[in-house]
């Protein structure tokens, strides 16, 4: 199960809207999703069509009474479960002050459901209290919805410091995966300037040991859309309220991006055996041309050139029996015998018959022995 905490201590930046619509989009795509409402205001519970005053089960019992997680969740949409919240969650922090291990209560409650869901999205309260600390201890990733305003940047730095502290002391697997820009207006200059500042800040963290070293701004930002503000009043997601609006299009792309981050590990493993098979096939193809590169024709020439010095030593020992080739009258005749000897290897009987007639003058008698 992939656990994602949607967190920002600043209120009104789109945390609840992001959790509700991403959860609905993932569930509609076939994934089994559970959403957790850790906000005492219970906005996520209201957004998905439940009345907090009527709901008795919920995150309060899981946090304070050690209730089983699977007994408290409710099926609100196909493939979508909800752990609701109510006003009683306000007193959870004061009740857990003296409890040992109060920071990991939610993580221990989720351990029994790891294999039953694909995604778990946690809607955190707009604070950095004990409830938010439980969400960070239970999550693997953090998604930060951010409104591109100047004041939002101030809280962004404090939030990263809190995440870094939790990463070092409680949850070493916690990382910031992305920043989602909500209520983005591309026509104004301020949102683009804030976006550029955040990108530069995240780029400077590349290669460090910080929890946000691999964070990035999601390629899709949520445009301003009144339909996103109207949908919660009807207890519906944006896909149920107005599926053709900009808000539905944007959150669908965000859900696809979140889901794609979970898929690449399986996709990168598949092509590896294929490439390995190709690499194993490559040595089979160079083997046939190998004999073509080693024909006997290329071996004869170096043999003849190497055989040349061998006969040079032979005429030195056989100079008495072969004086007739030396008394050629001209200097050209003296230069010819070395070439004749080099081209007449003793191991080849046919070569002497080919070269002797061309080397001897037909007009001279073969009486070289009498001259000496």
Arithmetic mean of pLDDT = 77
Strand content range = 5-15%
Distance between the termini: 107 Å
User: Compute the gyration radius: what is it?
Assistant: 43 Å
Helix and strand sequence: EHEHHHEEHHEHEHEHEHHHHHHHHHHH
Task: Count all strands and give the number.
Answer: 8
Share of residues in helices: 40-55%
Task: Tell me, briefly, the overall form.
Answer: globular
* Uncertain stretches: 264-360, 367-372
State the secondary-structure class.
alpha/beta
Biggest sheet character: 8 strands, mixed
Number of helices: 20
Taking strands numbered 1, 2, ... along the chain, how are they ordered across the largest sheet? Answer: 3-4-2-5-1-6-7-8
Structure in words:
This protein is α/β, with parallel strands linked by helices and 372 residues long. The protein contains 20 helices and eight strands. It has helices spanning 15-28, 43-47, 59-64, 69-72, 92-95, 105-110, 130-138, 150-169, 189-204, 226-230, 238-241, 246-262, 264-269, 271-281, 289-293, 296-307, 309-317, 331-342, 350-359, 368-371, and strands spanning 2-6, 33-37, 74-77, 80-83, 119-123, 141-146, 175-181, 216-217. An eight-stranded mixed sheet has the order 3-4-2-5-1-6-7-8, with helices on both faces. Helix 1 packs across helix 12 (246-262). The protein is globular.
Features of the shown structure:
372 residues; 8 strands; alpha/beta; eight-stranded mixed sheet; disordered C terminus; 48% helix
């Amino acid at each position: 199960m992939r656990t994602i905490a949607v967190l920002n201590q600043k209120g009104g930046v789109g945390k609840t809207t992001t959790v509700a619509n991403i959860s609905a989009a993932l569930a509609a795509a076939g994934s089994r999703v559970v959403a957790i409402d850790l906000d005492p205001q219970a906005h996520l519970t209201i957004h998905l069509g439940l009345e907090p005053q009527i709901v008795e089960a919920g995150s309060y019992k899981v946090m304070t009474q050690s209730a089983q997680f699977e007994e408290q969740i409710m099926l609100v949409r196909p493939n979508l479960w909800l752990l609701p919240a109510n006003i009683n969650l306000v007193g959870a922090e004061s009740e857990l002050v003296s409890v040992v291990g109060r920071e990991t209560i939610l993580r221990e409650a989720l351990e029994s459901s790891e294999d039953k869901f694909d995604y778990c999205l946690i809607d955190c309260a707009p604070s950095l209290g004990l409830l938010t600390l439980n969400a960070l201890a239970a999550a693997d990733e953090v998604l930060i919805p951010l409104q591109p305003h100047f004041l939002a940047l101030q809280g962004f730095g404090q939030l990263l410091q809190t995440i870094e502290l939790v990463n070092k002391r409680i949850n070493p697997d916690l990382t910031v995966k992305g920043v989602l820009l909500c209520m983005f207006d591309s026509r104004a200059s301020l949102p683009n300037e804030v976006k550029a500042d955040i990108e530069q800040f995240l780029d400077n963290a590349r290669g460090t040991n910080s929890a946000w070293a691999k964070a990035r701004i999601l390629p899709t930002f949520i445009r301003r859309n009144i339909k996103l503000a109207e949908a919660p009043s009807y207890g519906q997601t944006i896909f149920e309220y107005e599926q053709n609006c900009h808000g539905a299009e944007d959150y669908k792309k965000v859900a696809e991006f979140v889901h794609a981050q979970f898929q690449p590990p399986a996709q990168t493993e598949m092509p590896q055996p294929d490439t390995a098979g190709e690499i194993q096939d490559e040595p089979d193809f160079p083997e046939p041309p190998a004999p073509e590169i080693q024909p006997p024709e290329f071996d004869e020439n170096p043999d003849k050139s190497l055989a040349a010095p061998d006969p040079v030593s032979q005429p030195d020992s056989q100079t008495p029996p072969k004086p007739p080739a030396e008394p050629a009258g001209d200097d050209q005749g003296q230069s010819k015998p070395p070439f004749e000897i080099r081209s007449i290897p003793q191991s080849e009987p046919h070569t002497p018959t080919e070269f002797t007639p061309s080397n001897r003058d037909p007009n001279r008698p073969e009486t070289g022995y009498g001259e000496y």
